[in-house]
Amino acid sequence: MPRKLCNQCLRPQNVCLCEYLVHLQAPCKVLILQHTSEQKQPLATVPILQLCLSPIQVLVGEDFSDHPVAKDVLKGASNVRVLFPTDQSASWHVGQSLEANEQVDLLIVLDGTWRKAKKMWFINDWLHQLPAVVLVDAPKSQYQIRSSTVSGGVSTLEAIAQSCNFLSNSTQFDALYVPFKAMIDMQIKKMGSDVFKAHYQKTQD
Fold first, then answer.
1. How far apart are alpha carbons 85 and 134 in whole angstroms?
2. CA-to-CA distance for 94 and 97, rounded, in angstroms?
3. DSSP letter string over 133-166?
4. Is the peptide bond before 55 cis (omega within 30 degrees of 0)?
5. How far apart are the C-alpha atoms of 138 and 135, rounded to whole Å?
6. Helix, strand, coil in percent for the chain, rounding step 5
7. What is the pLDDT of residues 81-133, one digit of tens each?
């Protein structure tokens, strides 16, 4: 028998996140390009963002070159930023704020493992026409239940929370960590401390 899901957060009722959800207005529109494989991840962070942050749009796939949204983005490229590390990426220093004379209307974020995100970057060469940015001095990831092969890698939720704080010169988007941490704590409790320590804690240390 399939597990009963919460009507709002769409998670199994025994790990419902509704009491932890927040509602925040982002300082710019957020566009997430999500790799298809991420849709299958029960502990993905994009569903939390969709419930807590607006305006936000999620496109699922791998190659978005012919997508009408991509064409619309290129028309207004001057106020668009792609959050992706390249040799030409401008630095967004976490804890500092955007220059007063700079404006961002749309932030594009690639959602997937580092290998999948890199593949999406190279496939979607239209992204290369847009200014890229990278987060600098970001705090260590709290995503204890998914390991990363990249030093300093953070989850999509953490990257967007830090970007929104930077763009708004505030810390109000730290509130996104409330449902994020609740999801992590529930998963650790479900797997048991011994399993968590054996499979994840060593990776985090």
1. 5
2. 8
3. EEEESPPPP--TTS--SSTT---HHHHHHHHHHH
4. yes
5. 6
6. 45, 20, 35
7. 999 999 999 999 998 888 877 889 999 999 999 999 999 999 999 999 999 99
pTM of the model: 0.88
Give the Cα-Cα-Cα angle 161, 165, 99 (nearest 5 degrees): 135
**Which one is predicted more confidently, 149 or 137?**
137
Cα–Cα distance measured from residue 150 to residue 139, given in angstroms and rounded to the nearest whole number: 14
* Residue spans of beta strands (DSSP E) within the chain: 24-35, 53-61, 80-83, 90-93, 106-111, 132-136
> Alpha-carbon Rg of the chain, whole angstroms?
17
